[in-house]
Structure formats: C-alpha cells, structure tokens
Automatic annotation (TrEMBL):
Protein name stated in the entry: DUF456 domain-containing protein
Higher taxonomy: Archaea, Methanobacteriati, Methanobacteriota, Stenosarchaea group, Halobacteria
Pfam assignment, any one: DUF456
InterPro entries referenced in this protein's UniProt entry, alphabetically: DUF456
Record's signal peptide: none
UniProtKB keywords: Membrane, Transmembrane, Transmembrane helix
Membrane-spanning intervals of the chain: 49-69, 81-114, 134-160
Domain of life according to the entry: Archaea
Length: 161
C-alpha cells in the first residue's frame, strides 16, 4: 500500500529530474530530499543503508555538477572568474524574461563581449563563449542522467525488492 509520504517522496524525486531542465531549481537536492524523506518515514530501514549511500553519492554529484559545471567549463575555455560571474547574472536575468534560450544567449553573449574587452582577440572570446555554453548544456544533461538514476534506483529498491 502506498501512503502520502511515499507519494511525496516520489514526487520530489520526479521533481528532481524535471528540475534539471529549469535553472535555479535544485534537481539534485530535490532528489536527495525524496530519498531521505522516504528513508526517514520507513524508520531508516527501507531502502537499505548501502542503497541510500549509493543514491546519496549520485545526488551529491548531481548537486556539484549543477553548481559548478558551467563555471568549470567557462574556466576551461579561458574565461575569467569575473566574466563567469557576470555571465551567470546576465544569463539568469534573461532566462527570467525569455526562458532557457535567454539563459544560453545571455551566457554566450556576455562571455564573448567581456572576454573580447579583456583579451582583444576574437578567437579567445569565441572559444570561451562556446565552452561556457556547451558546458552549461552538458552539465544539465549530466545532472538529468544522475537525477534520473536516483529516481530509477529508488523505485527499483523500494518497489521491486
């Protein structure tokens, strides 16, 4: 029999997967909240400690990817920390107004303009902007895979075993 806490826990896990596609929605944190809510509700018995540890590791990696994936990619492309921070602010502001495409356009455009002003080379600016944009997309894909793994691992552990 499925009770209300189980429904909320699964909803949090599903929200974690869906949250990876929405900036500012902490997908990994929602996934972990679902796992821990259910585990607490079961008296810390179901799923087992090893399963909870594995799901926690996956959720924690998803959080790290969400928080730092885009910044790491920007730095790998040669963007400065100041450029990366400015791009995040502009990207989020544009995302609120225009949606996910605004986020990507804001990131790309801000990194390109600020790096061009800093380095005065088209190649460096373009490379930094491309790395940043691809890094944000890639980190979102990785986070989605990780949170989906937490969801499916949880469902298998709780409902099939």
């Amino acid at each position: 029999m499925v009770d209300a806490i189980t429904v909320v826990a699964v909803a949090l896990l599903v929200g974690g997967v869906l949250g990876t596609a929405l900036p500012l929605v902490p997908g990994g944190a929602l996934s972990l909240a679902g796992v821990f809510l259910y585990w607490w509700h079961s008296g810390f018995t179901d799923p087992g400690a090893i399963t909870v540890a594995a799901l926690t590791i996956l959720g924690a990696i998803a959080l790290v990817v969400e928080l730092f994936g885009g910044s790491i990619a920007a730095r790998a492309g040669g963007a400065s920390w100041a450029t990366t921070a400015a791009a995040a602010v502009v990207g989020i502001a544009l995302m609120i107004v225009t949606g996910p495409l605004g986020l990507l356009a804001g990131l790309f455009g801000t990194v390109f303009v600020l790096e061009f002003a800093r380095e005065r080379t088209f190649d460096h600016s373009a490379r930094s902007a491309i790395y940043t944009t691809i890094g944000v997309l890639a980190s979102t894909a990785v986070e989605a895979l990780l949170t989906a793994s937490v969801l499916f691992g949880f469902l298998i552990a709780v409902f099939l075993f």
